Amino acid sequence: MRSTLKLAVPVVVAALALGACGTKGGDTSAGSSGGAKACDQKIGMFGALTGPNANLGIYIQNGVNLALDDYNKKHADCKVTLENYDSQGDPTQAPALAKKAIDDKKVVGIVGPAFSGESKAADPAFNEAGLVTITPSATNPKLADNGWKTFFRVLGNDATQGPAAAKYIKDTLKANKPFVIDDASEYGKGLADIVRQDLGSAVVGNDTVQQKQTDFSASVTKVKSSGADALFYGGYAPEAAPLVKQLRDAGWKGTFVAADGVKDQSFIDNAGPAADGAVVTCPCVPADIAPDFAKAYKAKYNQDPNTYSGEGYDAATILLDGIAAGKDRSSMIDFVKSYDKKGVTKQLKFDSKGESADIKVFAYKVEGGKFVSVGEIK
What is the pTM of this model? Predict the structure, then answer.
């Protein structure tokens, strides 16, 4: 392994049980209403649970449900329930779903939105209503630049992931002729543009495709004729799978590199052998960093934690800790702002823009039909 990678070192997770203890800046008194703690509160999960990008949403939802299980075991006399808002990853559905969540006064916080495009569409309404959102997966850097007081993100954004991907392409792959393709989405284009900027004059070609596209023959021709020895793709798994398959079928031998939007088992399943050797970057931590969480997750779902499962758990944990501290919708914002506690993925703390104060980016390689961590990109 080259010096640019540093193997992840497991951290100790004290316990999976949730509670208000251990936070800083939030007391354990009742919320701003001044009354007794409500026992019919909800948290929301906002993201794709059906449709082509459902796997990523389901991975997050699994983490959220595990956090709820842990919380409700400790608070059997005052349980919290989950309300799902299935966006299908479609930004056009986001505003109506946001209104539905806002109108349900029992919802005191949202895990999500899961995707950058739907975040851009829904978060203005959440901000106006004062409903906290903690995204475990939306990585477009511009989301934190809107002045939304209710926006928080428990992972690094693409201003970190993009340079990390470019660094991996240059320093680890030693690619001399990288090609960059994006899917024109809020997430994909934003990320690809950062990679383009960091790779600079080494980029031998650029192209843009569309979501739901299936024929990539024009892009394949451009990549092959450019002599590219690596390709970075900014987009999601449904398009990445046929793209890499068509590239391999055409005889292209370079390394396919993508980011967290492709870290979905469906990419491997749909691309088949063409996925072998593909590299994805992700500000999501490997399962072995939080062994206690991984064990509990596998016991519940009979599988290892997947992309953003741990981040979903952490986002839900923050909201549940707030509920345990007696916070309601209006007082949850200040509670989250001052939150400072070790989670299963990192130290959970936010800067003034709602960004995570603890950021790491990892590389994963497709080997044997699985994403295998090859270490942190340093």
Answer: 0.85
